[in-house]
Amino acid sequence: MVLLLLLLLLFSFIMYCYIQDTKKKIGKRIIRYLLVSSILQIIWTTAYMLSEYLPKFTISGIVYIIAFSITGLAMFKGLTKLGYLIFTNIVISPILSLIWIRIGDATFVSCTMNSLRAVFIPIAIIVINGSCQISLFLFIKLQNWLSLGKQKEKQPLKKTVIKYIKVLCFQLLLSMVLEVILISNNMFLSCLPIVFFLGAIFIFRKKISVSYIFWIISWLFIDNTAIFLGGKSISSFHMLVRQQLETNCMIGFPIYHILLTIYFKLKGNKK
């Protein structure tokens, strides 16, 4: 009954938008937005449900990367808008998640969904996928704002490559030192060098102009690799404190890079 009501709501919204347009141009555009957004929600829902039935990152992570890439491209090309993504996420994602639960329990016998968990999944999928899509929208808006009034300076290939190598070496050194510090498993002793690292990142970024996206991606890759290699030698007793510190650094440093990028942009606008 609930599924029928949601489908009826979606159909009514499409028809209302189409009837309201006298020239039918806006109506066709709205239908295109809804169609593209609905297809994107299928990919997002698939990624989330795969993470529920197959907890390992490999498969669901790849689908999430595909969802992020296609959605970002659709937003950038103007094929969809945030409002339509939110609407289709609220209407379509719960329906698809319930269908997934029915099919998944029969397919993945070893990962059968319990009833309590199944109740919260339609709500969780709206919140999690919606948050990811809103974050992606904000990222695109940030990128568009950063590119305003920016003149691209052509630099020799050798000089550009050297800059990126310097950033990679700095990130690698930072990650290695951080892993050594975290061996102490002491929150206070670990936080002091992190403050120093933040200052070092600020100075390094001020001297070397490289895209913040490269900083973030390279940091996530290098730090994840260091965590994977370093975690093999850590006992389970100290794992909890270490994981908390590593998670804070993994999330905190990319946020710090975004804030630095906004700071440098505002400072450049004042000049």
Automatic annotation (TrEMBL):
Q: Does the keyword Cell inner membrane apply?
A: no
Q: Which UniProt keywords apply?
A: Membrane, Transmembrane, Transmembrane helix
> Would the keyword Transmembrane helix be found if you checked this record's keyword annotation?
yes
Give the stretches traversing the membrane: 6-21, 33-51, 57-76, 83-103, 115-140, 161-181, 187-205, 212-230, 250-266
Protein name in UniProt: Uncharacterized protein
